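Researcher: Sequence of Elongation factor 4 follows. Predict its structure.
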Amino acid sequence: MTASAQKNIRNFSIVAHIDHGKSTLADRLIQITGGLTEREMTDQVLDSMDIERERGITIKAQTVRLSYTAKDGETYTLNLIDTPGHVDFAYEVNRSLAAVEGSLLVVDASQGVEAQTLANVYQAIDNNHEIVPVLNKIDLPAAEPEKVKAQIEDVIGLDASNAIGISAKTGLNVDQVLEAIVTRLPPPMGDREAPLKALLVDSWYDTYLGVVVLVRIIDGVLKKGQRIKMLGSGAAYDVDRVGVFTPKMVAMAELGPGEIGFLTGSIKEVADTRVGDTITEEKRPCVEMLAGFKPAQPVVFCGLFPVDAADFEDLRAAMGKLRLNDASFSFEMETSAALGFGFRCGFLGLLHLEIIQERLEREFNLDLIATAPSVIYQIEMTDDSTIDLHNPADMPDVVKIKEIREPWIRATILTPDEYLGSVLKLCQDRRGNQIELTYVGARAMVTYDLPLNEVVFDFYDRLKSISKGYASFDYQITEYRPGDLVKMSILVNAEPVDALSMLVHRTRAEARGRVMCEKLKDLIPQHLFQIPIQAAIGAKIIARETIRALRKDVTAKCYGGDITRKRKLLEKQKEGKKKMRQFGKVEIPQEAFIAALKMDE
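Model: Prediction complete. Tokens:
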């Protein structure tokens, strides 16, 4: 590829809030440039997973190379990366942005700027991107393009005077977007003669090809048959094939500076290809590594157990396979008295947890049960050592603990004015501290510091329900702060149920314990003996409910006759119940666990 061809490359990604039309715009760009024939086109071409299509969200960032002949007669190569909009997949966005020079900022002309729009556009600005604002859905009756342009200027501080108004669904003005990409975004820099230096953007496992690695070439040339070395892990591989996605895989002889494509080699595990690593030639390595990007840190942990204990090995194999395609998902084995063998898994957020659980159930036919989600606590012991606590059941003895620190987040919530009161109340109830409150047109933008363990439970669902779905929410983890946290155990018939134990703030413990006991009382079926359900902190019982015994009428067969005969039968029954209560096992059905873990205050 010559230098003249290099100046005709444009690398860009599409950033936007969930549902503002990124994937639909990507469809139109692919269609207009002829990346796929009409027959091959489907809606949301780049959302290849079933779950992505059903939920209408993008989970994995996807890339495609398009060829476009501009009005000036030149032919340009456009590399597009379609990114997710959801806060749980922010690291996918982060690494997609590191691989390109410009971004299309898509804003829904009827909804305006949302929390995730801000988060993603700030990441693009941090990566020194040239940004082209695009107003989508201008054909809707509710669209207010002028108002939204003013909002982009006020909130983000971008000049929106030349924002392009389009409808990605109908294809209106999409050709103007292509012209803007060519004229307003910069070509990539890079030296063809320098040693090979490439950024590893993503990797996934393909059953036929082994590990497929998505790369962005910075300097040098990547050819078939070359021997490459990963600077981070130090491993070396022979390149079998090099190519690009047009969304279909197309083999190429080589990739030059500024190009985005894939390579396959004899790589066995995705774990060997660390996202953000630098790829170079083994014989002629480059001097310094690329900055890469921060690895994904799991924030939410929960236990996943098979409903049928015999499925444990299948679950282990399934998790290993998912791990191949999703490096941000981590797991280790754990056992629980109530649930048997399972895994403690780390996720980037609740949506990530839900998606992984759904993929395990759907792609591998497993029946799973998940314990209550918890976050990582830092515990400082009296001997000044610090441990990370992932599972409340493993909490050390209270006597040895000096203090417990919990993660706090900085949350940005955008909400229409009429729901502001309920949103503020929700944040206060969750022990939040208000940092600032500003107005963006008719919408309030609230910044709050909140403890993460109050957010992972059901904060997002509550926020959506009190604002009728209009509030948007984005967060990042800021720091660990000491908190007055206690471990609350649930006892059923005086036996602790480890799967239901949780760390809660002392002020919230009693309310939460009571809710849990009431819930279990309705969920556990009656037995032939009385069952107490208790919530306890240490040895102190803070809430109790009792499930009444099922009674069999033992005196039914005596009509008339002597009272002592009846009394004898009743006494005998009483003795039996007493004995049963000592040795009786309480069967807690799986549904009860699942329902009890879905805490709704």
